[in-house]
């Protein structure tokens, strides 16, 4: 059973409901923002829990604009998680976030600690890193100087290992027109990147006492694995799991290994 809806412009889906009296898992995607990113995880998760997907504000099927009265921030992404939970009557959820979604999970832990059960931060960070800045500078140049098609064509280099790109080249080429057609408005993407580059909760990590799985990949070309080590060192109740291979989007390239670690943590092992 899938329940779909919209709250304050945010498109959401509930898979495997109802939620009353049950633990719920909410999945929050990275910079692209689309809930469909989590396709490789859905069977493993919905076999055990109700699962909430949503498209970040400004992306996918959600409203394609951001508030214009102030700079957009990762804290706003956390606020949108609360809006989706409220719409579905969910008092508390386990949050699994990839990159931007993981950072938003950290922000949620600080702003609404009572709404969060366990947290999984996948290839996220607590403060800006020079390598991340360099990668985003490159993406910004592509978007500003060339356009969405060039941005989409290059993004596989940041997301996947070289061997996986070689083996899946036809698939990636076939998907590019779809990604270009669904690309967020330029102003939205610039604001989302700006929010990630401004994100810094490093000094507040000791305040987050929730159980946290810090999931990382040793060969991530966008977020250095040292960012995960820092999260695990500074979060009071964290477990670090580093996959040896899989790139930034390890949930796509190695779903079996990623899902096994994710389920173990959510089940309490």
The amount of beta strand, in percent, is 15-25%
User: Looking at this structure, what is the CATH superfamily?
Assistant: Alpha/Beta hydrolase fold, catalytic domain
Mean pLDDT: 97
Alpha carbon gyration radius:
17 Å
What structural class should be given to the helix and strand makeup? alpha/beta
Q: Which of globular, elongated, flat, extended, rod-shaped describes the shape?
A: globular
Order of helices and strands: EEEHEHEHEHHHHHEHEHH
Task: Give the fraction of residues assigned to helices.
Answer: 40-55%
CATH architecture: 3-Layer(aba) Sandwich
Please identify the top-level CATH class.
Answer: Alpha Beta
| CATH fold descriptor | Rossmann fold
Keywords: Hydrolase
Organism: Caulobacter radicis
GO cellular component, one term: membrane
Function: Involved in pyrimidine catabolism. May facilitate the hydrolysis of carbamate, a reaction that can also occur spontaneously.
Protein described:
With 269 residues, this protein is α/β, with parallel strands linked by helices. It has one domain (2-267): Rossmann fold (3-Layer(aba) Sandwich), CATH 3.40.50. It is 45% helix and 17% strand. It contains eleven helices and eight strands. The chain has helices spanning 39-46, 74-88, 100-111, 130-145, 148-159, 162-167, 169-181, 186-198, 225-234, 250-253, 255-267, and strands at residues 2-7, 10-15, 25-28, 51-54, 93-98, 116-122, 212-217, 238-243. An eight-stranded mixed sheet has the order 1-2-4-3-5-6-7-8, with helices on both faces. Helix 9 links the parallel strand 7 (212-217) and strand 8 (238-243). Helix 4 (130-145) runs antiparallel to helix 5, helix 4 runs antiparallel to helix 8 and helix 5 crosses helix 7 (169-181). The model has no long low-confidence stretch (mean pLDDT 97). Residues 24-143 form the AB hydrolase-1 domain. Pfam families: Abhydrolase_1.
């Amino acid at each position: 059973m899938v329940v779909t809806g919209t709250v304050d412009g945010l498109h959401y889906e509930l898979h495997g409901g109802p939620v009353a009296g049950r633990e719920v898992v909410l999945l929050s995607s990275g910079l692209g923002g689309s809930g469909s990113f989590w396709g490789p995880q859905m069977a493993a998760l919905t076999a055990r829990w109700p699962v909430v997907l949503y498209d970040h504000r400004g992306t996918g099927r959600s409203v394609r604009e951001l508030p214009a009265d102030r700079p957009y921030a990762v804290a706003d992404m956390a606020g949108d998680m609360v809006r989706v939970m409220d719409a579905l009557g969910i008092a508390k959820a386990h949050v699994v976030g990839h990159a931007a979604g993981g950072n938003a999970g950290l922000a949620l832990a600080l702003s609404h600690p009572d709404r969060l059960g366990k947290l999984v931060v996948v290839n996220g960070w607590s403060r800006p890193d020079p390598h991340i800045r360099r990668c985003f500078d490159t993406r910004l140049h592509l978007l500003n100087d060339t356009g969405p098609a060039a941005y989409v064509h290059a993004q596989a280099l940041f997301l996947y290992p070289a061997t996986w790109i070689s083996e899946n080249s036809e698939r990636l080429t076939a998907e590019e027109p779809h990604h270009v057609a669904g690309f967020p408005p330029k102003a939205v993407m610039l604001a989302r990147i700006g929010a990630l580059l401004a994100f810094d909760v490093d000094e507040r990590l000791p305040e987050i006492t929730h159980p946290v799985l810090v999931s990382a990949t040793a060969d991530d070309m966008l977020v250095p694995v040292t960012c995960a080590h820092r999260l695990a060192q500074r979060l009071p109740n964290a477990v670090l799991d580093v996959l040896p291979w899989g790139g930034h989007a390890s949930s796509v390239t190695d779903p079996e290994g990623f899902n096994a670690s994710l389920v173990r943590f959510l089940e309490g092992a």
